[in-house]
Write a structure and sequence with these properties.
By secondary structure, the chain is an alpha/beta fold. It has two domains: 2-151 and 292-343, Quinone Oxidoreductase, Chain A, domain 1; 159-287, NAD(P)-binding Rossmann-like Domain (Rossmann fold), CATH 3.40.50.720. The chain is built from twelve helices and 17 strands. The N and C termini lie close together (12 Å).
């Protein structure tokens, strides 16, 4: 089968590889029907994910059909259409029992697929702990609707959930890329009074204006005054920092009102510092990132009910055999690209 492979720093290639086999009793083999490219794949390509193993098949955002299951798998069976979770988790350890599956203590726990073990930019993928890692897709939900459930949509759901948004709150979202949009869609479910999305990319702000007309959009330099005008208490009640730059990290605490909650979703290239003397008295609560992707079933139900629709994020579609071209486009950010879907035809 064809598999997009991390060859070495700076190089991915589409290689012919053997079809994966069941290795453990809780494994499933999934025939991938639709995959996508994530910014984290680019981080692997650029060598900034030290745990990524050269030779590994990349891709951790996909849907497919269960082909085979091991003897210990109970919740899914061959023929089921499923979403694949970016995180591998045992479901039994202390962290899993508390819903903190990102910190599962299993040696394969956390982000393994498409990083430490073969992922899903390929015709087939082996999924360990399939009962936790796979969720059946309701019949009325298409592959395109379900594509992001296991990764960026799980992230949006997790971020909105832990941000404890109250009805009427002013919410600031820094970053209008695909993950920012997923955070936005999930935040809107909590009925905030006003959402402000900030990004320096005008095209991405236009995307928000087109699809979410009630949301205020702005450039970074406008954010502080807008957060003041659109809130009753001198700043945002909740801030979600999804962009991951030094500037957005600073804006995240600056635009927050005293006692606000700041959820850091972003992954930074470098350490960030909080100027605590300047911040003294603001009494902010910071939550640092790492999605716990264990609510995929609920997300699928919300999609089935029409509450969430991320299909407009799929701006481009390529067949697997042209995935190198798909990467070039995604990386260049040309042609208004948000997300690229990869078909297996
Ligand atoms: Zn990802
Ligand atoms: Zn666990």
């Amino acid at each position: 089968m064809l598999a997009c492979t991390y060859v070495e720093k700076g190089k991915f290639a589409l290689l012919e590889k053997p079809k994966p086999e069941i290795l453990e009793e809780k494994d499933a083999i999934v025939k991938v029907t639709l995959a996508s490219i994530c910014t984290s794949d680019l981080h692997i390509k650029h060598g900034s994910v030290p745990r990524a193993v050269p030779g590994v098949t990349v891709g951790h955002e996909m849907v497919g059909i269960v082909e085979k299951v091991g003897s210990g798998v109970k919740n899914v069976k061959p023929g089921d259409r499923v979403t694949v979770n970016v995180e591998t988790f045992c479901g039994e350890c202390f962290f899993c029992q508390n819903g903190w599956v990102n910190n599962c203590t299993d040696p394969n726990g956390g982000w393994a697929l498409g990083c430490r073990i073969d992922g899903g930019q390929a015709e087939f993928v082996r999924v360990p702990y399939a009962d936790q890692g796979l969720n059946p897709i309701p019949p009325t939900v298409s592959d395109r609707q379900a594509l992001f459930v296991g990764d960026i949509l799980a992230t949006g759901d997790w971020a909105a959930r832990i941000s404890r948004i109250q009805k009427g709150d002013t919410v600031v979202i820094l970053g209008a890329g695909p993950t920012g949009i997923c955070c936005l869609q999930c935040a809107l479910l909590y009925q905030p009074g006003q959402v402000i999305v900030c990004d320096k990319d005008a095209e991405r702000l236009h995307y928000v204006n087109r699809h979410h007309p009630g949301v205020v959009t702005c450039q970074p330099e406008e954010l502080l005054s807008l957060a003041q005008t659109h809130s009753a208490h001198g700043g945002a009640d909740v801030v979600m920092e999804v962009a991951g730059s030094e500037e957005t990290f600073r804006l995240a605490w600056e635009c927050a009102r005293p006692n606000a909650l700041v959820t850091v979703v972003a992954l930074y290239d470098r350490p960030q510092t909080l100027p605590l003397p300047q911040m003294y008295g603001k009494n902010l609560t910071f939550q640092t990132g790492g999605v716990d992707g264990c609510h995929c079933g609920e997300i699928l139900e919300r999609i089935a009910r029409g509450e969430i629709d991320t299909t407009p994020l799929i701006t481009h579609t390529y067949p697997l055999r042209e995935i190198e071209e798909a990467y070039r486009l995604f990386e260049s950010r040309a042609s208004g690209v948000m997300k690229v879907a990869v078909t297996m035809e």
